[in-house]
Amino acid sequence: MTDSKYFTTTKKGEIFELKAELNSDKKEKKKEAVKKVIASMTVGKDVSALFPDVVNCMQTDNLELKKLVYLYLMNYAKSQPDMAIMAVNTFVKDCEDPNPLIRALAVRTMGCIRVDKITEYLCEPLRKCLKDEDPYVRKTAAVCVAKLHDINAQLVEDQGFLDTLKDLISDSNPMVVANAVAALSEIAESHPSSNLLDLNPQSINKLLTALNECTEWGQIFILDCLANYMPKDDREAQSICERVTPRLSHANSAVVLSAVKVLMKFMEMLSKDLDYYGTLLKKLAPPLVTLLSAEPELQYVALRNINLIVQKRPEILKHEMKVFFVKYNDPIYVKLEKLDIMIRLASQANIAQVLAELKEYATEVDVDFVRKAVRAIGRCAIKVEQSAERCVSTLLDLIQTKVNYVVQEAIVVIKDIFRKYPNKYESVIATLCENLDSLDEPEARAAMIWIVGEYAERIDNADELLESFLEGFHDESTQVQLQLLTAIVKLFLKKPTETQELVQQVLSLATQDSDNPDLRDRGYIYWRLLSTDPVAAKEVVLAEKPLISEETDLIEPTLLDELICYIGTLASVYHKPPSAFVEGSRGVVHKSLPPRTGSSESAESPDTAPSGVQAAEQPAVIPTQGDLLGDLLNLDLGPPVSGPPLATSVQMGAVDLLGGGLDSLMGDESEGMGGSNTFAPAPSTTVPTTLGAPLGSGLGDLFDLTGGVGTLSGSYVAPKTVWLPAMKAKGLEISGTFSRQVGSISMDLVLTNKALQVMSDFAIQFNRNSFGLAPAAPLQVHAPLAPNQSVEISLPLNTVGSVMKMDPLNNLQVAVKNNIDVFYFSTLYPLHILFVEDGKMERQMFLATWKDIANENEAQFQIKDCSLNADAVSSKLQGSNIFTIAKRNVEGQDMLYQSLKLTNGIWVLAELRIQPSNPSFTLSLKCRAPEVSQYVYQAYETILKN
Amino acid sequence: MLDNGFPLATESNILKELIKPPTILRTVVNTITGSTNVGDQLPTGQLSVVPWRRTGVKYTNNEAYFDVIEEIDAIIDKSGSTITAEIQGVIDACVKLTGMPDLTLSFMNPRLLDDVSFHPCVRFKRWESERILSFIPPDGNFRLLSYHVSAQNLVAIPVYVKHNISFRDSSSLGRFEITVGPKQTMGKTVEGVMVTSQMPKGVLNMTLTPSQGTHIFDPVTKLLSWDVGKINPQKLPSLKGSMTLQAGTSKPDENPTINLQFKIQQLAISGLKVNRLDMYGEKYKPFKGIKYMTKAGKFQVRT
Fold first, then answer.
1. pLDDT given for residue A535 in this prediction
2. In this structure, what are the phi and psi dihedrals at residue A237, rounded to the nearest 5 degrees?
3. Do B6 and A250 touch (CB under 8 A)?
4. Mean pLDDT in residue range A90-94
5. Within its chain, how far is the Cα of A297 from the centroid?
6. Partner-chain residue, chosen from B38, B46, B115, that has the shortest CB–CB distance to A290
7. Which residues of B touch A221 (CB under 8 A)?
8. pLDDT digits (tens, 9 = 90+) for A133-191
9. In DSSP terms, which residues pair with A863 in a beta bridge?
10. Cα dist. A137→A125, A134, A153, A175, A448 in Å?
11. Where does the MHD domain start and stop, copy by copy (chain B) (predicted)?
């Protein structure tokens, strides 16, 4: 006897038996066997060895058996691709079966078999099924196209299935329409560039008709698809909204949420003055409330979505506060979420109710919930000023309960209230001090110490209180230690006489006995401040503190807008965009709310253009990007690496900083960037002074090679003016001007040494400015500048520096350093140096954009005393990258339509009216960022008059 | 049901047609004929304009029953005043009618309903314009409508709870007394009353005597439940006694919340009443019935 039997017997047993049964003649036995196989498969046993035997059972007229075999195939075809080919014939045959159920089954299963060889055979049957007379087959085939596209996108495109799928949107059967939409949406999502769902008013109309008739899941597909549509004006948006609102009364909460999503999105386009807007707001509230009557899990999903909606449009639920009141047996996750929404909805009108509720919650059992309730009271006080007093007294009542964690939490929030309303509620300090001993959590201790330090002059025994904390200084957490240090220094500054000893003690504890660098540093700073200049110390330590903001933990507006587009999906539950948690190669499409067209509110919407000025810089021409990279590399690595090939790596992925509003601003350029806005990491404003000369010239070459994008003639250059007189700069005189030549901006400087000593070690820095202008290379002065000597330098600039809005917009603050000192001056740069070479808009685009920009963004200016004719004007402006797109003659007047683009991607459209008899021109400017208009006008004037 | 991750059909009528639910008769037939519960015909309803109804329905007794069930969710504060109260109502239907009947249901007072969500079968337009429910019903049991009444003045509170729960600071004994009584019941009896309350941790045991019903206190979970039964307005049920508290500890900070369950038959507390039910499209005369019931949902009394 050997031990081999242990290996052979078990191995044979089951599989062997099944094999025999599968090959049995009796139908019943066969079916039983396949069922057994499926059962083993489901629990995870490997039954792939039976593949040929199971496939043999495929040719049967028994539907149940067929379904089981198909199930098996889906699971194992991938592991046995060669064998799976054997099944193809049956599939093809089944696709012609008279029973539509079998046809659909075959086409569905084939789509699920992810084997390349099979997909080739799938095309013909699929084409037939897409045109099948039975809608059930058509709708199954529609989904199959999406499956196939996932396996082999090229094949699907070559075979023209996408067009067939688009045709199915007009199908007579609503379910087919719904499935076609679902399939197209899925394909479009994985190929954001394909522009598959180019919906137009006609197809939207078809979808809306199908919406009323198809099943609940079909409705969801259609609604989700509608949400991605961008109506062309507010009237279209309104008519879609009207047809979608009935869905709010659907029993399926997913349908309701999808409808809410569509409405929330399109509402963005409706003017708030519209009656319909108000009606819509009213209609949205009840369904949201009703969602809360479901099971706790569904409630949670609803609450997370409501949380977003409330942040976007608090007016919808402002009267529904009560439904968010917490029941004591709600699960904790529902409780916390309800509490959050309650605070967001709190207003002067309902604060009394809210406070009474919160107080009730603060006596509950669940510690987490109680803590959050106490915090909520504090947030109410900060949010609704009128209620602050009542909140404070509520908190005091809670402190009286002496429940340890309640007291601690209350003290933490009272500290915030003190920050918000300084010098208003100090009367409560005495009560707080009574509870000093019971505080054992660092946050509460730190808060209490902060209060004592801040109000030291009003607390008689502040020194004793702080001293008591000092005893166990080294056992405290860092937070408390830092706070204690600051508080004692404050105390010392307020009552210097009695507390000298105390402050010395804490300083020595912090600086000598502590191994925490933060604490030591802070200790040293205080020590030196106090020893060198106590008055300055007072100014620094007891400075006015900035007020704390009203609303904490709000979701950032751009993220909020994106999440609104994902209502009813996981993203809205996580409060994270899908890109944050969806893995895989799928292209993530960033969705954004449509820009508001309602004229009165263009300034309010975060998407519209004014923000464009402070916006993150958009590298306009590739050289600047490469150049930036060069800088970065030099900072980190040392040897310069050639820039351009690496330029793409500067692209920081799809950080959509400004939402969709910017896309239209960027025009064709953002398309070139793969549909997503690029975001260049803000480089340090200082250019490393260690850069060697060869690099500087290398960069110069780079500019020359790649910079020539537009016209070759440079734009107008103003004569140099004195920027920094010698008197102010210890003998250094700087005069200069700005120029733009073949795509690069430079600052032409003349440095003159009017002092009696030699100057050397020049360096230059710009402050942050409106368009992110920054030196592209360090200031190169090769030899020391002797007295009475001048040197001319051209400093290349780029626009990838940090951005800060300046007033006036074109103000530039410059610091120049030499071996003597640092000097500051500011100058205004003409805006036309920022006009880029590819600022020529297409006619159609110009027309659409001109219409699209609201009228109040239009500004009119007069350019007086200019004697040029239209053609001369046109060519002169072209030299400075202002492009004439069209010219018209209306009643003897010449109208020039022009466009230009700024380095940060802002388009400016202009209409210039020239009357032959009149030397005054009328200039109308339209721009999404109207504040630039004035400076563009100045640029026009400068160019035309010189 | 699911294809490529898309849910397609979850309507129970369709699913039942795809895979027939096992019955004794069917099992017997299957064993004899060798057929299965898996339907081999395409469910016709799935593609029609009425995807929720299967075709070829036949009954010998044609009947349509509607249950109007309302649940009151309420929070009552210490002093007995209502903090929030709302009614979640549903109309569940059991319709067993032959053919393709077209029903209309009208209410005496449809304006009561604040927010409604319908089964897909209900024609929304007619509701909007005439406040009439017009629909071709699915076969069998389904939820026709759920609604919501939240306007506070409309929500009557059918019962009240008088409570006197006191923990004393020094002694280890506490007093406990609750009485339940009817309030606005429109003359109907309140039955199936059940009082539960989560007592604070400090309560070791309770010695209580109910005037009716049975009570249990679980000293481990600290859950007190009192099965009251019917409320007799002449002799209000009460539960009195004392609590043994953990000695030496201070009195509990939180007060127990009382959770109440009850049922009132033949009453929709919102006052909703069905006016009439008509059938079109088929010739026979169906058997109609409407039942009302009010229940406590999340009905809580704070003490």
1. 85
2. -60, -45
3. no
4. 85
5. 28
6. B115
7. 6
8. 888 899 899 999 988 888 888 888 888 888 888 888 888 888 889 999 999 888 888 77
9. A921
10. 11, 6, 22, 11, 71
11. 61-302
CATH of domain B63-155+267-301: 2.60.40.1170
Give how far B6 is from chain A: nearest CA, Å. Answer: 8
Contact across the interface for A136 and B150, Cβ inside 8 Å: no
Interface ipTM > 0.90: no
Phi/psi region, residue A104 (left: phi>0; alpha: psi -120 to 50; beta: rest), is alpha
How far apart, in whole angstroms, are the C-alpha atoms of residue A72 and residue A56?
12
Asked if pLDDT for residue A334 goes beyond 90, the answer is: yes
Q: Work out the minimum CA distance from B130 to partner chain A, whole angstroms.
A: 15
Structure tokens at B163: 């409570």
**Contact status of A469 with chain B (Cβ, < 8 Å):** no
Q: Where in chain B is the domain with CATH 2.60.40.1170?
A: 63-155+267-301, 159-264
| Cβ-based contacts of B120 with chain A (< 8 Å) | 215-216, 250-251
B46 closest CA partner among A125, A262, A188, A137: A137
Do B301 and B81 touch, CB atoms closer than 8 A? no
N residues, chain A: 946
Contact at CB, A64 and B124, closer than 8 angstroms? no
Scanning A218-237 for CB atoms below 8 A from B yields: 221
User: Cα–Cα distances in Å, from A35 out to A61, A70, B36, B105?
Assistant: 17, 12, 13, 47
CA proximity to A345, closest of A309, A378, A301, A372: A309
What is the per-residue pLDDT across A442-482, written as a single tens digit (0 to 9) for each? 889 999 999 888 888 888 888 888 888 888 888 888 889 99
Higher pLDDT, A55 or A522: A522
CA distance B35 to chain A (A): 9
Whether the pTM exceeds 0.80: the reply is: no
Q: Which residue of B has its CA nearest to A182?
A: B6
Over 50: is that where the pLDDT of B202 sits?
A: yes
Residues B191 and B265: beta-carbon distance below 8 Å: yes
CATH 3.40.630.10 fits B159-264, yes or no: no
Instruction: Supply A203's token pair.
Output: 């197809």
pLDDT of residue A258: 94
Sheet holding A744-753, edge to edge: A721-724, A732-741, A744-753, A790-798, A774-775
Select from B9, B115, B146 the Cβ nearest to the Cβ of A251: B146
Residue B237: predicted pLDDT: 92
Q: Residue A626 above 60 pLDDT?
A: no
Question: Phi and psi for B226 in degrees, rounded to 5?
Answer: -130, 115
Task: List A184's β-bridge partners, or say none.
Answer: none
Query: Residues A294, A288: contact at Cβ < 8 Å?
Result: no
Residues 6+ apart with CB under 8 A from A694: none
The pLDDT of residue A658:
38
For residue A223, what pLDDT is reported? 93
- Looking at chain B, which residue has its C-alpha nearest residue A136? B47
Residue type, A115: V
* Token couple for A813: 């603050």
Quick one: tokens of A849? 């954009």
Please give the structure tokens belonging to residue B289: 């019935």
Residue numbers in A near B11 (CB within 8 A): 215
Residue A293 and residue B88: Cβ atoms within 8 Å?
A: yes
What pLDDT does B69 receive? 94
Contacts of B249 in chain A (CB under 8 A): none
> Is A242 part of the contact surface with chain B (CB cutoff 8 Å)?
no
CA–CA separation, A6 and A902 (whole Å): 80
Contacts of A325 in chain B (CB under 8 A): 75, 83-84
Touching check for A567 and chain B: CB below 8 Å?
Answer: no
Select from A741, A662, A678 the least CA-distant residue to A708: A741
Structure token pair of residue B51: 């995807």
Residue type, B267: L
